[in-house]
Amino acid sequence: MDGEAIKEVEKKLEFGAGEILLLFLIALNILEFAGLLPHDLDYLKKIISWVALGYLLYKADLTEIIFGYKDKLIDTLLILAYFLIIMKNFIVFSKTAVDAIGSLEGSFLMPLYIFILDHALAFEIITFYIGAILLIIVACFNLFLNVDIKAPSIMAMIHSEGMSEGIGQRIGRTITSFLIFVTFFIVVFNLIMEWLAWAIDSSILVLAIFFYFFFFIKYSRKFDAENFVYKVGNVGSDFYRNAIRLFHSKDTIMIAVSGILVLHLITDAGIFILPYITGKEISYFTALGAGHETIITLASASLASVQAGLAKALVIIGYLFNVLAALFLFIGPAFIWYELYSGERKGIPRIAYFLFFSSIAYLLMNPVFSMKRILIERIAGVDIITTSLGMQNIQLYTMIAIAAGMTAFALTYMHVLRRCLKYIIFSLVAMFFGYYIYLFSFDIVAFYINALFNGIPALAKFYFLIFLAATMLFYSIGGIYFIYIALYSLHKKEV
User: Fold this and answer.
1) Residue 123 sits in which domain range?
2) Do 364 and 472 belong together in one domain?
């Protein structure tokens, strides 16, 4: 077989691996959505999702982002270390599966669940130690192999390009590499995996994550213009290349950091808001406690409590305004970030001004959604609560909300006032963003502080101190930067 034929076979095999994983996950999610997925297959789906994420991170070439060159061995060791550190999530998976099944006869995987739960502490400690030590060893490659740093890369922003010129530089690069590895783990990898552990039941969220990685990472490499899938990939290739470049420059790395924060809100929109809207029952809602009824359930109860046709219409309008407001607030930061990323001001349709101001006004007066910290041991994040629509003064609230929207709509016909309204929209979204990030980061910081004072082993304490520092820096600097962009930087040329 000649060289061209071998390359063609390799290309087809590469094409098949990603598609097989993706199609298998789609099939499992369709079964889950239809209520036909057994608990054992749900457990396997979580494992396959982890494997798929590892594969897609492998295709992303982490060493190229960090050091400026490709090294698949280092990529593999990094991903392996990351997975070992968070293997505790398998304990969560197993506990959830046992609670859902409820009997020893209900699952052929029950012996595996019981084995993991019986040895949970040893399993968690051993895997964490192996992963933590492996991460240190990979960082020490800078010390023993004298890594050749190339631009563009994260390391090239901190250290000079080329090889080290002495033992001092080697030690410095080793420490920097280790801190970068740990920061990537806590800021990107751990965030995704923690939410996959809880949100894997959300078909929409899982498919969105894997379609994103599949098209933006894999198909940024090679394309066939005659193939529709490659055409779709071609649309995402420029975005992927530009997104990777954000980590390579001191001028753009904050755009990448703020973008990760924005993904927090998009993730929670998929985890909470979409199931609330679609009426899909989610297993982790039960674990979070009361206050997680779907909008369909709440609206049905509210409609049953009134008789008049006008009252029913007001109830429907009230829930619709609340849903619109939640979508605006959770997805709005992505719109702001895209303006920052693209460097272009985007126009907002006039009808969007009406919908935004009317829905936000209604949400402030008669809210269905509220946020609080997740008050569950070993789980950190933001919990979004639902409550029934208040029936008192509902007609007045509706009139005020519609009046606010109509006023905003009318003002859009004056150019200067339309720019002012856009600034107000950005300001309200930024304030919500800041409050959300405060709740999220406060919960994570409190989690690490409590762990540090609970007598954990020395190596774990060392890592948790770095986790704590990285978390505080990431959320504070990234959050402040995003708010600065939303309130000032994007508008300064128009003032």
Assistant:
1) 3-251
2) yes
